[in-house]
Design a protein that fits this description.
402 residues; Rossmann fold; 7-stranded mixed β-sheet; 5-stranded mixed β-sheet
Length: 402
Amino acid sequence: MQNPFENALNQIKRAVEVKEFPKSFIERLMHPDRQVRISIPLVMDDGTEKIFEGYRVEHNNKRGPYKGGIRFHQDADMNEVNALALWMTLKCAVANIPMGGGKGGITVDPKTLSQNELENLSRGWVRGMLPLLGPYKDVPAPDVNTNGQIMSWMVDEYEKLTDEKSGATFTGKPVSNRGSEGREEATSMGGLYVFNALRESLNLEGSLSVVIQGLGNVGGNAALLFEADGHKIIALSDSKGAIMNEEGLSVKDVIEFKKQTGSVVGFPGSKEISQSELLTLACDILIPSALENQITAENAKDIKARLVLELANGPTTPEADDILFAKGIYVVPDILANSGGVTVSTFEWEQNLKGEKWTKEEVFEKLKEKMEKEANNVLDNSRKYETDLRRGAFILAMERLS
């Protein structure tokens, strides 16, 4: 498995080949401000005690408080969290929001825990990271395998320990607990706004065929939103397998089937395919919305999509980027495509600090305006420097940071 932090550093090096920046600035960008690793002791339901490893990387707070999700995943480690924190710094700069980059995690498969164990583990992470956290210091959010319920436990633990009651230290909370309207769909909605802002310039008009890898919160919402926007979803996958139907899949029915059976595999009228086949299907838009390192030097030559819209973090390696660019396949990079999530998280933080409550319409109107503007800024940069959209986005972020 490729080291995601090495990939992130190589992406910076690719951008610097196109536009020069001061060496001291690049050196600073390649080193996070702080890396924290904690042990979280957890008494299991059977009375035994296990120790779990927790992480927080605070990469850069030049533009505002550290901001970034917490993932619960069996493969989470410091390299991954380092990469994600660096991408968050760049993503916040591309989205032009007053936040810096951070990321956190726990090495755990949450499916192996009871609800009680999951709650106690979440609270344990807050206790261990307490000195770092605060609405003007470091503001975590959900990520892979974490959600509004986990954020509610975390904010409750934080408030018990500090008596800080604004709710602004954690975002991605349920709407009923000071969360923002629209936060759940924000990453996917932002991706759709970015796509629609770019599609005419990239000659992607009309109803298009779409393949989506990952059917969690981001992938599931993306499938529903792109279908509602008039596109045909021809393949979907989850962690257990992948399905396709060239005539199109009913996303609502697939999601309902997955809820009942635990997987998309076996959905009536679909053909089961492998995860690797899914990525190389002939389609107009490929949307990776799972984990890092999915499109690599090994499979990039077989990618047949006209455009890759990265709703996952780091799904395409730098080597694959070069292959896709040479093939004329557009890649809308994660630091632009999925920045809707952190943008609406920032809206939530702002609402909490001001004691305001915005409607979903207000949230999406602000999000649309921001995503369209920054998508066009990235496109302009890529044309100005005669390069791909990723380097266009990195240069935009680095200009704002430097």
